Amino acid sequence: MKIKKILSFISIISILFSPAASLAQVTYYETLNPQFNPNRIIDDTFINDYNSLTLEEIKRFLDDQGGTLGRYVDPSTQQPAFWLIWNTAQEYRINPKFIMIMLQKEQSLITDDSPTENQYNWAVGYSCYGGVCLDVYKGFAKQIQAMANKIVNSYLSDLKIKGKYTANFYCTFTKWCVGVAKMTQDEQLIIPENKITAALYTYNPYQGGTITKQGRVGANYNFWKIWDRWFNQLTLRPTSTLLKTAGSDVVYLIQNGKKRPFANFSALATRYDPKKIMIVGQNELDQYQLGDPIKFSQYSLLANDEGKIFLLVDDTLRQIADMEVFRTLGFNPEEVETVSSADLAGLKIGRPITISSSYPTGALITDSSTGGVYWVQAGEKFPIMAPEILRVNYPDRKILSARPEELEKYPKGEAIKFKEGTLIKSRDSEIVYFVSGGKKLPIASEQAFVSRGYSWSDVVETNQVAVEMLLTGPALEPIDLSGLKQTAPAPVLDILPDSATTSTSTLN
């Protein structure tokens, strides 16, 4: 440890008295966010969470940000961008959030509603240096795949080998080392505290948040601002948390870092348990960007401008094929609410409901022979593997009985998982999880549990099978609400993409 500190000190002295540290290039600071640590941009655990978002969550996130990537199809692969992001994350075991931050940092592709072909072609600035890019890496798919491969299999791989490039230190090939001082190209002295920070400076050797004679530099400060804006808040309150203040009746659903207000009590109560609403201070609520309101109750019948009628099931619109199906299923025309197309924006479109779609709103059916219970909906049966899931997910549903030969008519789907926002634990373990975004988030400690305002009486004990059906997400650490920002952060749209300044370089 003493040797490392001495070497770091020698590195600082040599940099300060070297020609590279001269003021030939005058550099000015922007007003940096005081929470930004240029020596530790993000934690190493962030980069490895390749299951942080499902394919559907990536698509929804892209659509929510207002850009075109949610509907962009790469011309060389004929595959949609959201699938390429997810597949790249799975192939290289890299966080899809990291990929999306890089897309925004380099080309503003997540939020730009009219990007150029050039922005797609050089989506993450891979192989570009000094204004010259290598055509072999041209194209959206090639860009994100090459970038992920370089980060994971070159930079981070090298950083796992002590002494490969500098004795007794973990370094990349450009000598960005953990614990060793190095000057950035915008003349900021950095001592990386962890591997991903060293990797980020290898990819882009600028701190950012600076102004040089070449212009404004975004670089790694931009990376941090985008991460802080979009994903840092998810560690505060995970998706599926219900929040309100003591002085208001408006309840918000926290979803992907945004607060979505429920337009009415029915929209809330048909989806979530009102007892799970947490009372928080206005200052905490102000940390979240306002999202689209949740306007309609579960199983609402909605007619659009063209007269098409849809049944809303789990935020998915399922068109009723025709009026014969409507009448056969026992729906009442007086229940249909006419809405504008704008009101339906953001809702997914599912399979249409036809005359063969049994139980469109779902039903609990038990096998009269075995006693097994299924959730049957739209002609499929989904097994329920624990009585606790039955109690939590369907507290007021009656259970119908059917003969085995009747249930055999329905194809079997995936087992039903605990509903969003539930606290669960296995009887065989002491770990408590919060169900969020289709995953189980382990609560790191008793302090983390208490600091988040959870109640031990709300924890549902169940069997290990019901717990293991959920993928494991990032752990929920203790939160300290005393240091919350006083106002909501500035929109990411204010951030200048790295591609917009000639002073930003990418080493690959």
* Structure summary, number of beta strands: 28
User: How much helix is in the residues?
Assistant: 25-40%
Note the gap between the termini: 31 Å
Number of domains as seen in the coordinates: 4
Return the structural class.
alpha/beta
Shape: globular
The number of helical elements comes to 17
Average pLDDT level: 85
Strand order of the largest sheet: 13-10-11-12-14
Report the C-alpha radius of gyration, rounded. Answer: 26 Å
Low-confidence stretches: 1-24, 486-496, 499-508
Strand residue percentage: 15-25%
Report on the biggest sheet.
5 strands, mixed
How is this structure best described in words?
- This protein is an alpha/beta fold and about 500 residues long.
- The chain folds into four domains: about 1-230, no CATH class; about 300-350, no CATH class; about 365-405, no CATH class; about 425-485.
- The strands form eight sheets. A five-stranded mixed sheet has the order 13-10-11-12-14, with no helix packed on it.
- Helix 3 (about 55-65) packs across helix 4 (about 80-90), helix 4 runs parallel beside helix 7 and helix 5 (about 95-105) crosses helix 9.
- It is globular and about 70 Å long.
- The two termini are about 30 Å apart.
- The model is unreliable at about 1-25, about 485-495 and about 500-508 (pLDDT under 50).
